[in-house]
Amino acid sequence: MPADPAFAAVPAHLNPVIQGDLWLSWIAREGLTALALPPEAGGQGGTLAELGRAARTLARHAPGAAWVLWAQRLCIEQLHAAHNRAVADYLLPDLIAGGRAGACLLPSTSAPVPLAARRLERGWRLQGRLGLAANLQWAGFVLVAPACFEGGRRARVLLSGDDDGLRRSPDRPEADWHGTRTAELQAQALFFRDDEILDIADEPDAGLSAERLARITAVDRVLRAALT
Hints:
By secondary structure, the protein is an alpha+beta fold. The chain folds into 2 domains: 92 residues, no CATH class; 106 residues, Butyryl-CoA Dehydrogenase, subunit A, domain 2, CATH 2.40.110.10. Helices cover 35% and strands 25% of the residues. The protein has 6 helices and 8 strands. Strands 1, 2, 3, 4, 5, 6, 7 and 8 form an 8-stranded mixed β-sheet that branches. A hairpin with a 2-residue loop joins β2 and β3. α4 packs antiparallel against α5. The longest helix is centred in the first third of the chain and has 18 residues. The mean pLDDT is 93.
């Protein structure tokens, strides 16, 4: 974890696209994406309390960068917990290194509405409004989203910024969101494959354990507390 003087040197740029990529690279270089993540997952270990302290310090110097950290680190935790190990193990090194952005849906007072998934011969078709998401960086991003399959089965699926059918609005223009690359996302006839399903809620052998779900919630809570 970097010392306080390092936080004062968080890079700044007037162009929000460049700003977001600079923040992501800096956060990864300083080890924040790997903090409180087990070494066997590519992390550096440490506690959630240490992650919270680092996030609070970052928020004092660059609130927007703290939002980027929240999204990146939470996306990493979501993938670390995923039942689909092939996808998780492939993406985690790039996310930890900051080579790819991990986007997250912004907190809401209501539960996110799952995307409707319709079965096709060789995959699924997704439709629905996701809402606001942060860290949709130009370098490319992935996003964990809830989906509802035919028959009422609930799942988490992995979307990519270059998926055909994933539409985004212009970035939020307010100064507080500069560089966070926060925008509205919508799936319009988005095709995805079975191997992009991270886990299925009502299948015990393919879903999130209570322990892993609690860990995701704890990481989210610690990082969001720093933002307030």
